[in-house]
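Troubleshooting log. The previous structure file for this entry was overwritten by mistake, so regenerating from the original sequence record. Sequence copied from the archived sheet and checked twice against the printout by T.R.
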Amino acid sequence: MKAPSIVVCSLLLLLLAEAQITMAVNCKPTELSSCANSIVSSTPPSGLCCTKIKEQKPCLCQYLKNPSLKKFVNSPNARKVASTCGTPFPKC
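Regenerated output below.
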């Protein structure tokens, strides 16, 4: 009986931690400026770019809703950069 309770408590803690991390993200598309060259020209992403993509991952769905940003964020190269950085593209 204790094992399921421990598992449930652990899952709740993980979800709360994830929620706090997501809330702490400051969604600024300019934070991804270090990725612009990789998105536009297919050059490999820099370490800074990968760090910024990981930081901004909770914001990507919001960026996809913005017509000005969608063409860049939803491009095949942007998805390739995210994949190269080990950041799965979200399903919005």
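Confidence is low (pLDDT under 50) at residues 1-22. Archived copy saved in two places this time.
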